[in-house]
Specification:
heterodimer, A: 231 residues, alpha+beta, Beta Polymerase, domain 2, six-stranded mixed beta sheet, two-stranded antiparallel sheet, 12 strands, globular, B: alpha+beta, Cytochrome-c3 Hydrogenase, chain B, 2 domains, three-stranded antiparallel beta sheet, 18 helices, 47% helix
Chain lengths: 231, 446
């Protein structure tokens, strides 16, 4: 991995910074430079914003969406990433409902299905700790794209898209249950997998995996999240 | 009857509405008692321990006589935190975890997960063709097994035990082949990042060919039992109906969507593992009901058998060869055989690392204990599972373990349709609706 990738790259003017996935530290975490001169700290980031042309059908879809959003487009679409043949649109939460409505209703977009919402927790990404990832499926055009909405940990509110995509009802409950993202406007945002009176949101990174040490032939093996391990 | 509310608290949070908690008694007595008291609202709990809910599912039913006015599903009883656990294991170890989600179709999750990792690594095109054929073979055998369980238990839940035993006998034939190839009947951990754990054993092709007519025989027998059966027809036809627009609104995929006439199958729409090169049909129906879903599942089994036969031909033609990518930084030892300790081992590999090359031993140790690095980024991989679209969202932070692994289990999504299917129908038809959704709670709850 080159040094450039390890450094935090400045965000484009007026745009949100790239997703900082993790900050790796120490002998067992940091990869790449093992001389120690970088303090064994490595910043791992998501692939950055892509420049046009995006390729395949991606340009067309972004163009149509930009046109439909009108003046809001610049604000709504934070940036566009094309990576590994997949299109990701980073969307500002204020405009998520408008974007979802256009994606479903416009005949050139027609993403009829939202395949749920997957939460991801990036504790190192200050101000954008919690991400909600919506895979959108178009059966008509046989396409798939990804919407990603990032919110800060202290203010983890995202509008619910169940009014547009009713199938997301349980998926949003799951993401609330596991990550504590509050989907405003959801008809019944109750826990779905954990018991109703559960405290905490288990799939966040600050929530321990749990487990107990096990004794084997006189030696004590720590629980999986306590073991010394390469990350 | 008593008015105490027990541990779960009142279902209706209105002190003016009396609530009756009933523990097992004759239903007509309960109904008569409720009618005598002028109590209009009867809420019944079906499950979580109920033989007809396909697993540990709780269904809350509001009844008016025998008619269901409201149905809600309560899930979470089988939540085991598999996704969280996967974040603490290497990418390869993750296979062992995700195979236990939908345990009736184990290798479906393995396949989606491994295809996702390969996309992250950018090695999708490097997978040996032999491995892809074996993956297709296993995916289709798994599909047959899953559909047979769906149809079989569906019949059993209606009281037709013979349908279940016939289906399970046929499924056992697929398991024999799966076991001979992977070493295990279910929870196989056979499909690995970069390929599969091992190639065909000696006589594998003949074994597959010998299995096909046996499974076909089982399917024929099952079809004879079912297709002209007046009782089954009466129970399934025009029951648990759901049309195309309802399916699209609720994101339903798989046989339920295809029962509305939309031939949406990811094996055709978005082929993976070379599915575009196989000859098979996508059965559909326009009846929208539980009957058509059952028939579609049966027809899909026949189509899968066609694919299995094509896999056997290809494997025979290809002969021996690698079943794992060449990149030694990723490839775990493949071509395993069962050792004296009952574990899968590769004698040749052991000979090499223990007797010939110190460096190979170090490499093996590092690869297996530490794992391989996956470049940072995220991918979404969707495949056509037996129950519908199975999606995997993977995020890597450039390390040896997933930063996040999320599975969109088709059953989790499709179970949302239970309310639409069951409301307004007979209470007995709730069982039919659940069976026609065909979810496995291990996958729903993960």
């Amino acid at each position: 991995m080159s040094d450039d990738q390890n450094l935090e790259t400045p965000a484009p003017e007026g745009r949100a910074p790239l997703t900082l996935i993790n900050v790796r530290e120490g002998l067992f975490g940091a990869k790449g430079d093992t001389s120690g001169y970088d303090g064994l700290i490595q910043h791992v980031q998501m692939p950055g914003a892509s420049e046009r042309p995006y390729g395949e059908w991606f340009d067309g879809v972004v163009d149509v969406l930009t046109e439909l959003l009108g003046d809001d487009a610049d604000e709504a679409i934070e940036y566009v990433v094309v990576d590994r043949g997949e299109l990701t649109l980073y969307i500002a939460r204020e405009h998520l409902l408008a974007v979802a409505q256009h994606l479903r209703d416009d005949q050139d977009l027609r993403f009829e299905m939202c395949l749920g919402v997957s939460g991801v927790h990036y504790p190192a990404d200050t101000g954008r700790e919690l991400h909600a990832v919506y895979p959108m499926q178009s059966v008509t055009h046989n396409r798939r794209l990804r919407l990603e909405v990032a919110v800060p940990d202290g203010d983890s509110h995202i509008p619910s898209i169940t009014s547009i995509y009713p199938m997301n009802n349980w998926h949003e409950r799951e993401t609330w249950d596991f990550f504590g993202i509050i989907f405003d406007g959801h008809p019944s945002l109750a826990r779905i997998e954990m018991p109703d009176d559960w405290v905490g949101h288990p799939q966040r990174k600050d929530y321990p995996l749990g487990g107990i040490p096990v004794e084997y032939k006189g030696a004590e093996i720590p629980s999986p999240d306590e073991r010394r391990q390469y990350r | 009857m008593s008015t105490d509310t027990k541990a779960t608290g009142p279902f209706v949070e209105d002190p003016d509405v009396p609530e009756y908690t009933v523990y097992g008694s004759d239903w007509s007595e309960v109904a008569a008692e409720a009618a005598r008291l002028g109590q209009q609202r009867i809420v019944m709990n079906m499950g979580p321990q109920h033989p007809s809910t396909h697993g540990v599912l709780r269904v809350m039913l509001e009844l008016e006589g025998e008619i269901v006015t409201e149905a809600r599903a309560g899930i979470g009883y089988l939540h085991t935190g598999i996704e969280k656990n996967m974040e603490f294991r290497t990418w390869t170890q993750g296979v062992t975890f995700c195979t236990r989600m939908d345990y009736v179709a184990s290798m479906t999750q393995e396949l989606a997960y491994c295809l996702g990792i390969e996309k992250l690594l950018g090695i999708t095109d490097d997978i040996p063709e032999r491995a892809s054929v074996l993956r297709v073979l296993m995916a289709e055998l798994t599909r047959i097994g899953s559909h047979l369980v769906a149809v079989g238990t569906g019949g059993n839940e209606l009281g037709a035990t013979t349908i279940m035993t016939t289906a399970f006998v046929a499924r056992e034939e697929t398991f024999r082949v799966i076991e001979a190839i992977s070493g295990l009947r279910t929870n196989n951990a056979y499909i690995r990042p970069g390929g599969v754990a091992q190639g065909l054993p000696e006589g594998g092709v003949e074994m597959i060919r010998a299995m096909i007519p046996k499974v076909k025989e089982g399917l024929d027998e099952l079809a004879l039992l079912q297709i002209e059966n007046p009782i089954l027809k009466g129970r399934l036809k025009n029951v648990a109906t759901m049309n195309l627009s309802a399916c699209m609104a609720l994101g339903i995929t798989g046989p339920i969507l295809r029962s509305t006439g939309l031939p949406y199958d990811l094996r055709k729409a978005e082929p993976y593992c070379g599915y575009e090169t196989y000859d098979f049909q996508v059965p559909t129906s326009t009846d929208n009901d539980a009957w058509s879903r059952m028939v579609i599942r049966m027809e899909e089994c026949y189509e899968s058998l066609k694919i299995v036969a094509q896999c056997a031909d290809r494997l025979e033609k290809m002969g021996d060869g690698p079943v794992m990518v060449e990149d030694k930084k990723i490839a775990w030892p493949a071509q395993l055989s069962i050792g004296g300790d009952g574990q899968g081992n590769s004698p040749e590999h052991i000979k090499h690392i223990m007797g010939e090359s110190m460096e190979a031993l170090i490499h093996h140790f590092k690869l297996v204990t530490e794992g391989f690095d996956v470049p940072a980024g995220q991918v979404y991989q969707a495949i056509e599972g037996p129950k519908g679209l199975l999606g995997v969202h993977l995020v890597s932070d450039g390390g040896t373990k997933p930063w996040r692994a999320h599975f969109r289990d088709p059953g989790f999504n499709n179970l949302q349709a239970l309310s639409i299917m069951a409301q307004g129908g007979q209470m007995a038809d709730v069982v039919v609706a659940i069976a026609s959704i065909d979810m496995v709670l291990g996958g729903v709850d993960r």
